[in-house]
């Protein structure tokens, strides 16, 4: 069997044989695939091995989770059955998480070409069509409402003069949470967790202000304080709400608009806080 190599990191034939021996159950396992950095030939000395195991419906295996290969490399294995992987092709969020990875996955076990002929081919042929976009708009709207609570935590954390717990919760929602709203709405098929930030940013190429506010909220530029990052995130929420106003569902509009007004009335000014300069 072929070795999977990148720089100083390598899965040898014996490594692959061990993975197959440890995680195969021939009576229920239809396929075992390698995903992540090893599948993309990007693995480094600290990369883990990402495995997905496909089993027949109703199968319950107890060894999902994290393991060690030869006491030196972490393995994470996830077992899925039809009820799980069918969602990858019908649920907008699941599609954005899985489709790109399936396209480049490498096979370790593939009984009767179950993976390559069915799921991987399906992934290659996947199209983000009008029906998927309709479902994506509904899901993005629902999630935007869910993150409204974090904006209130941010505003209250600021009012209490540096309530760290509230500010940290707000910062998470206003960075990762809002990024997932964009991911779902725009149908961004994320190639890996490590590329998540840049691939979402590429989708915002038409709005430099949003890119800058998002970078500040994530804390990847400058030396901004937690307070400043939350303030940037609140203003990012307002811009995103405006940009996606035609997407919000009727049942969600009132909550989102109320949240925007609440931020506009109570969030500190970006310029006065030395976050952005006119």
TrEMBL record:
GO MF annotations, alphabetized: nucleotidyltransferase activity
CDD domains assigned: NT_KNTase_like
Domain Polymerase nucleotidyl transferase residue range list: 17-54
Annotated Gene3D superfamilies: Beta Polymerase, domain 2
Pfam families: NTP_transf_2
Name of this chain's protein: Polymerase nucleotidyl transferase domain-containing protein
């Amino acid at each position: 069997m072929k070795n999977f190599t990148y720089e100083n990191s390598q899965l040898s034939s014996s490594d692959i044989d061990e993975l197959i021996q440890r995680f195969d159950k021939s009576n229920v396992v239809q396929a075992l695939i390698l995903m992540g950095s090893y599948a993309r030939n990007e693995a480094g000395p600290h990369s883990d091995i990402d495995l997905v195991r496909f089993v027949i419906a109703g199968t319950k295996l107890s060894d999902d989770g994290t393991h060690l290969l030869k006491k030196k490399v972490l393995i994470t294995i996830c077992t899925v059955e039809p009820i799980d992987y069918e969602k990858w092709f019908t649920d907008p969020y699941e599609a954005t998480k899985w489709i790109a990875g399936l396209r480049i996955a490498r096979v370790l076990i593939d009984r009767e070409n179950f993976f390559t002929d069915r799921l991987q081919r399906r992934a290659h042929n996947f199209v983000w069509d009008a029906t998927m976009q309709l479902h994506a708009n509904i899901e993005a709207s629902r999630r935007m409402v869910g993150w409204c609570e974090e904006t209130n935590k941010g505003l209250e954390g600021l009012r209490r003069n540096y309530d760290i717990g509230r500010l940290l919760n707000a910062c998470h929602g206003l960075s990762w949470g809002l990024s997932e709203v964009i991911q779902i709405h725009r149908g961004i098929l994320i190639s890996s967790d490590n590329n998540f930030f840049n691939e979402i940013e590429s989708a915002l190429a038409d709005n430099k202000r949003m890119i800058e506010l998002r970078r500040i909220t994530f804390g990847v530029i400058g030396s901004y304080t937690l307070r400043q990052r939350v303030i940037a995130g609140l203003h990012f929420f307002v811009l995103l709400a405006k940009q996606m106003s035609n997407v919000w569902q009727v049942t969600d509009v009132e909550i989102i608009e109320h949240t925007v007004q609440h931020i506009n009335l109570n969030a500190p000014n970006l310029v006065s806080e030395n976050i952005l300069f006119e």
